[in-house]
Design a protein that fits this description.
InterPro entries: DUF3298, PdaC, PdaC/RsiV-like_sf. The structure is a single chain. Helices cover about 20% and strands about 30% of the residues. By secondary structure, it is α+β, with helices and mostly antiparallel strands. It has a domain of about 110 residues: Lipocalin. It has an eight-stranded antiparallel beta barrel with strand order 1-2-3-4-5-6-7-8. The chain has a six-stranded mixed β-sheet with strand order 9-10-11-12-13-14. The longest helix has 23 residues. The N terminus and C terminus are likely disordered.
């Protein structure tokens, strides 16, 4: 089914890297936990916001598009990831596809809700950057479309894209040695209120590090990358030493290359941004041998009145745990090709939807993210279930940065 193949398609560029080692790429980071308001993006990266009226729709959409190097792809092209939404706050995701033309942006839909025919063709956005304003124009699903670049207001909160990458040889003395590659792409807040920006930056860095608790001291982005790089190369070289062929077996190096072309990628994307609410996605992919790598996205919402991260317990009342599984069970069925009365285990690993705390907010509802193998096979990919605000509002805590929410924001 088409909805099962989207995540797999999105990883084709990643999987190809396992057999195409390239030369080392490096970039520098901001070097400060609280970056200046004028921080600029790393070379070859960009973060832009667009607005458009898509063909056949009456409400405009907002698109957040991040561009960064496609890590270790031998083509050297730029990669893109996009998230867009309309007035209902339901987010949809777009994955970039390589294009040799520098002003071309090719994206395809990765949200199963956009597959009118589950077995039909993939919906593509084929766009080209326009001279002057920087708009995008072309086709969406074969129909003409024009995306207007939204310039941030002077001094307003926006993001710089910072990118780091490096590689190391498994066997430094061998000219055909496989390599281990690591990259980190982060979004660093710039502009906005200085105190809020500093708190937001610290909390984003904690999220990038993968901490599940708040209150832990953040590290600088540069220091975080150095820690991850050091740990990755240490483990990589240990694994390589365990599998190294005999010195005399020079032809054996190539035979070991596919399994030792390790990768570790961390990327940050904007999933939703509206008024006082920001939701990011921390995507991590790791390949350390075997048939395929492991990947998953962690959603993270932030209250832009304070810079505070909103975790599951900050969003939902205690009684929500008893009611959310049934709502998730209803909403997941059309995403995986099930009828309303079909048992879940006809397509999934579970008879009843488990409640994940991997959730992020929009002003129109909440998205629950199930990573591969949590409720479905790797081939089915990551499953994201959207519950509209009308269905979950009685389960939400007060004070959230949502329309109609009561009580002022809680300070950290």
């Amino acid at each position: 089914m088409k909805c099962f193949s989207y995540a797999w398609l999105g990883l084709l560029g990643l999987a190809a890297c396992n057999t195409q080692p390239t030369s080392t790429t490096t970039a520098t980071g901001p070097g400060a936990a609280s970056p200046p308001a004028t921080l600029v993006s790393s070379p070859g990266t960009a973060y832009h916001v667009y607005r458009a009226l898509l063909p056949g729709q009456t409400d405009s959409i907002t698109l957040h598009l991040v561009a960064a190097p496609r890590s270790f792809d031998a083509t050297g092209t730029t990669g893109h990831f996009g998230s867009y939404y309309g007035l209902d706050g339901h987010p949809y995701t777009l994955q970039g596809q390589p294009s040799l033309a520098p002003d071309s942006v090719v994206l395809f839909e990765t949200s199963p809700e956009k597959a009118i025919d589950p077995n039909g063709p993939t919906l593509y956005w084929r766009l080209r950057r326009q001279p002057g304003r920087g708009d995008l124009a072309g086709t969406v699903g074969g129909q003409p479309a024009h995306l207007r670049l939204v310039q941030p207001t002077a001094g307003a909160l926006t993001f710089a894209v910072r990118y780091f990458a490096d590689s190391a040889a498994a066997f430094p003395q061998e000219p055909k040695s496989p390599r281990g590659h690591i990259s980190l792409q982060a979004l660093v807040p710039t502009g906005g209120d200085a105190a809020m920006r500093e708190r937001l930056t610290d909390n984003i860095l904690v999220g990038l590090r993968g901490d599940t608790l708040d209150g832990l001291p953040p590290v600088t982005l540069t220091a975080l990358y150095k820690q991850q790089r050091q740990q990755f190369f240490k483990e990589y070289r240990e694994d390589a030493a365990d599998t190294r062929p005999a010195t005399a077996d020079t032809t054996g190096i190539g035979a070991y290359a596919p399994g030792l072309n390790y990768e570790d990628q961390t990327n940050t994307y904007v999933l939703y941004r509206q008024t006082d609410l920001l939701s990011l996605g921390f995507f991590h992919y790791n390949y350390s041998g075997g048939a395929h790598g492991a990947y998953g996205t962690t959603g993270a919402s932030y209250d832009l009145r304070t810079g505070r991260r909103l975790r599951y317990d900050d969003i939902f009342r205690p009684e929500a745990a008893q009611q959310l599984p049934a709502l998730l069970g209803q909403a997941v069925r059309p995403l995986v090709g099930l009828a309303a009365d079909d048992p879940l285990d006809k397509q999934l690993f579970v008879k009843k939807m488990p409640l994940t705390h991997n959730v992020y907010l929009t002003t129109g509802g909440a998205v629950f993210i199930y990573q591969p193998y949590e409720i479905a096979s790797y081939a089915q990919g990551e499953i994201r279930v959207f519950l509209p605000l009308a269905a979950i509002r009685p389960l939400l805590r007060d004070g959230l940065p949502l329309p109609g929410s009561s009580v002022v924001a809680r300070q950290e």
